[in-house]
Design brief:
Length: 403
């Protein structure tokens, strides 16, 4: 358990167990039972711990930022977004002894969903043949992160197929953070964001131009936004969600999320409920599938929405990008960054009140949503109905007792 990351001393934990062994034992048994009931594994804990660690630090890590700046200066990495994939490949091969095999996974169809595999004994980097230049650049930048930060404990695959330790999960996060930091220079990006936030009107093309300037994928751009905005623009109440959509089954799933400052209303659920179709995250995925069906898809699509959470005063400014999944075919992906609309946001993002912004009342999942006459509803409000039935039973019992 990575107790040190959260400022918890192991001696204190042992002291608590020693003082109340039966109660602590019962508590631990309860956690174990819950994990079994919900099929939670050790890797779920590690990824959850990493997410909490990111949230504690508002997803900004000065030591990695400084390392990225040193690397960029040492290897003459451009700071204006024009980082060439060939430059990164040359540095990997000439300075760190890598051998890059661009179609290295062709002979392994079972690995078609992985972007790369690293072979430590001879430093061979086997790439998926379906990667575009942006994805290749990120893989190279991430490998440079492992080498420059001297991160030894790591998995061989680009994504963690099997998690062996928390150190492994943490090192992959640090390498990816470093990679994005050298591709999207901190100081240059801050200037670009100041200009973008200063616009009086929402401009989706201007938002896309940020991604295009740094040759970034939507995920890379949004990761950098979560690094920079809380630290340098003071907007700490924000969330990030990534949805995957299977058009064949019309199934939407959240596979990544991050919440800064507090747990925000939009969040993942692991119990197969139907997420609210009114969020821009899902609306854009629907639009993307429609465009693909009609042969009109021409690139990453963008949208913005002011989303008021039903039954509360909380309202979020949500920026969303959607694209086809790659290298996994037949799936689409959207990434959303949501900012709580408060006084800090109003004084930072000028276009927050643009009347052209889409405005919707939203909820989490259909099963838990009390909004009536919802045309986008994908499932009856089963949880709400069950809750109402229970309340009626409780009220009837109170009346009997009262009589």
């Amino acid at each position: 358990m990575p107790l040190d990351l959260f400022g918890i001393e192991l001696a204190k934990v042992i002291e608590i167990i020693a003082n109340a062994p039966l109660r602590v034992g019962a508590f631990i048994s309860t956690l174990v039972d819950l994990s079994r009931n919900f099929s939670l594994r050790e890797e779920n804990f590690y990824h959850g711990a990493l997410r909490s660690y990111q949230e504690m630090h508002y997803n900004y890590f000065e030591s990695i930022e400084e390392a990225a700046l040193r690397f960029s200066a040492q290897y003459k990495i451009p700071t204006d977004g024009s980082v060439s994939v060939h430059l990164l490949a040359d540095i990997l091969q000439e300075c760190f002894g890598y051998k890059i095999i661009e179609n290295g996974l062709v002979a392994y169809p079972e690995l078609h969903h992985l972007r790369s595999v690293f072979v430590p004994r001879n430093k061979r980097l086997l790439l998926n043949e379906g990667l575009n230049e942006i994805q290749q650049a990120f893989q190279y930048a991430k490998e440079l992160g492992f080498q420059f930060l001297e991160l030894k404990e790591r998995a061989s695959s680009s994504s963690l197929v099997k998690v062996n330790s928390f150190e492994e999960v943490l090192n992959h996060f640090m390498a990816a953070y470093f990679g994005v930091a050298i591709l999207i220079n901190r100081d240059s990006f801050i200037v670009d964001l100041q200009s973008f936030f200063g616009q009086a009107k929402w401009d989706g093309q201007a938002f896309l131009s940020l991604m295009n300037k740094y040759h970034a994928s939507p995920e890379m751009l949004f990761q950098r936004l979560t690094n920079i905005i809380p630290e340098f623009f003071g907007l700490e109440q924000m969330f990030f969600l990534r949805f995957k959509h299977d058009p064949e089954t019309d199934d939407f799933q959240i596979d990544k999320e991050l919440h800064l400052n507090r747990r925000h209303h939009p969040h993942g659920n692991q119990i197969n409920e139907h997420y609210c179709r009114r969020w821009m995250s899902l609306l854009l995925l629907k639009d993307l599938h429609q465009m693909q069906s009609e042969g009109k898809y021409a690139g990453t699509i963008v949208g913005a929405q002011r989303s008021r959470y039903f039954g509360t005063e909380d309202e979020y400014l949500c920026l969303t990008l959607a694209r086809p999944g790659a290298p996994t075919p037949n799936k689409n992906v959207s990434v959303t960054l949501g900012f709580l609309i408060n006084q800090e946001l109003k004084s930072t993002i000028n276009f927050w009140n643009d009347p052209a912004l889409n405005q919707r009342e939203v909820h989490t999942t259909c099963e838990r949503c009390p909004i009536e006459d919802c045309h986008e509803r994908a499932q009856p409000a089963l949880i709400i109905e069950k809750r109402n039935r229970r309340r009626k039973v409780e009220e009837a019992i109170r009346q009997i007792i009262g009589d």
